[in-house]
């Protein structure tokens, strides 16, 4: 697949998903970029903003299998990965795959489960495999985790371990829709829109899982100038020395920003990365990888504020491509 075909496929996926997810074009775009860059997405927003609908719509449009895990305080690791169950007919233990054995996994309210269960996703997200009783089993391709968490409620929640949150390529915020968009949503429901019947809503499958793999492979044709490499490392390096940041982003953030920038460049039909690709994706890639000083948090400083400061201070390359 060439870059032009990549762009056409991306546009078709975006347009088709936007039919049912009104007013959330940026969320769709960031999620697609992360998916095509081979990463996972953490979506933060209050309930009722269409996070689950996004996953179901993408699954339908992409033609991939999807499953949902509702994380709760009593969820066990084996409830995620699966485990061996004794089969009386065969007189032997048989492995029963858990819901993680899918292509598009929705980890709903991931911060409601204890760290032991959250960490059950670690190997799956990083190694694309699951180990149980000494046997390692590969997950289907493509495999993407889209996790959600509620930023408001803190009772009965467990903060994500740093090792796990760093596995997410992007953290995306979902905000309330504007008044006109919310009115359009009401019109859609008044005309009989049923989120449980996406085919009946006119949503069509436009690509397949193999197409997604081909689109990922096409990104190898997107070149990255050495000045862009320096730009990325300068931005990520500044997160480690910013006055408000206690712990900055790791090299994994640099790698993620590079991969995401290539996916965005291809989405715009270019075979090279420009500084604007990096700048536009830096907040989503970096905001969850920085720990702020307590004093900065008390003053109301946010990770996005820090990224904004860093982008203003880092020299932008004059030429690229």
In short:
This protein has 321 residues and is an alpha/beta fold. It is built from 14 helices and 11 strands.
Summarize the SSE layout with pairings:
Elements: H1 3-17, H2 25-36, E1 41-44, H3 51-62, E2 66-70, H4 77-81, E3 82-87, E4 92-97, E5 104-108, H5 115-118, H6 120-127, E6 129-132, E7 135-138, E8 144-149, H7 162-165, E9 170-173, H8 179-190, H9 209-218, H10 226-238, E10 245-247, H11 251-267, H12 275-286, E11 291-292, H13 294-298, H14 303-313
Parallel strand pairs: 1-8, 1-9, 2-5, 5-8
Antiparallel strand pairs: 3-4, 6-7, 10-11
Helix pairs in contact: 10-11, 10-12, 11-12, 12-14
How would you describe this structure to a colleague?
The chain has about 325 residues and is of the alpha/beta class. It has 2 domains: about 190 residues, P-loop containing nucleotide triphosphate hydrolases (Rossmann fold, 3-Layer(aba) Sandwich); about 90 residues, Magnesium chelatase subunit I, C-Terminal domain (Helicase, Ruva Protein, domain 3). Helices cover about 45% and strands about 15% of the residues. Strands 2-5-8-1-9 form a 5-stranded parallel beta sheet. A hairpin with a 2-residue loop joins strand 6 and strand 7. The chain starts with a helix and ends in an 8-residue tail after the last helix.
**Average predicted confidence as pLDDT:** 88
N-end to C-end Cα span: 20 Å
Order of helices and strands: HHEHEHEEEHHEEEHEHHHEHHEHH
What would the CATH topology of the largest domain be? Rossmann fold
Helical content class = 40-55%
Architecture of the largest domain, according to CATH? 3-Layer(aba) Sandwich
> Strand order of the main beta sheet, please?
2-5-8-1-9
Decide which structural class fits the backbone: alpha/beta
Beta-sheet strand percentage? 15-25%
Looking at how many chains there are and whether they match, the oligomeric state comes to single chain
């Amino acid at each position: 697949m060439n870059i032009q075909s990549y762009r056409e496929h991306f546009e078709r996926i975006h347009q088709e998903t936007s039919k049912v997810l009104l007013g959330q074009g940026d969320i769709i775009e960031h999620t697609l970029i992360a998916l095509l860059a081979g990463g996972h997405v953490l979506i933060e927003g209050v309930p009722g903003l269409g996070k689950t609908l996004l996953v179901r719509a993408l699954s339908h449009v992409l033609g991939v299998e999807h499953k949902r895990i509702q994380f709760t305080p009593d969820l066990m690791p084996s409830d995620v990965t699966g485990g061996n169950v004794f089969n009386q007919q065969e007189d032997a233990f048989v492995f029963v795959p858990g819901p993680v054995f899918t292509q598009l996994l929705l980890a709903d309210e991931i911060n409601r489960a204890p760290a032991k269960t959250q960490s059950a996703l670690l190997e799956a997200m990083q190694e694309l495999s699951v180990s149980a009783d000494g046997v390692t089993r590969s997950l289907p391709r493509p495999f993407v985790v889209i996790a959600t968490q509620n930023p408001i409620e803190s009772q009965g929640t467990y903060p994500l371990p740093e090792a796990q949150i760093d596995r997410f390529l992007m953290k995306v915020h979902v905000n309330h829709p504007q008044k006109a968009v919310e009115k359009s949503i009401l019109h859609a429901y008044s005309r009989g829109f049923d989120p449980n019947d996406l085919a009946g809503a006119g949503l069509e499958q436009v690509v397949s899982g193999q197409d997604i793999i081909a689109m990922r492979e096409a990104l190898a044709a997107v070149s990255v100038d050495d000045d862009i490499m320096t730009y990325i490392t300068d931005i990520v390096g500044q997160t480690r020395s910013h006055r408000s940041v206690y712990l900055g982003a790791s090299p994994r953030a640099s790698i993620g920003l590079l991969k995401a920038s290539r996916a965005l460049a291809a989405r715009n039909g270019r075979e090279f990365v420009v500084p604007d690709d990096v700048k536009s994706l830096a907040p989503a890639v970096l905001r969850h990888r920085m720990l702020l000083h307590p004093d900065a948090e008390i003053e109301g400083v946010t990770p996005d504020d820090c990224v904004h400061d860093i982008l203003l201070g880092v020299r932008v390359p004059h030429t690229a491509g």
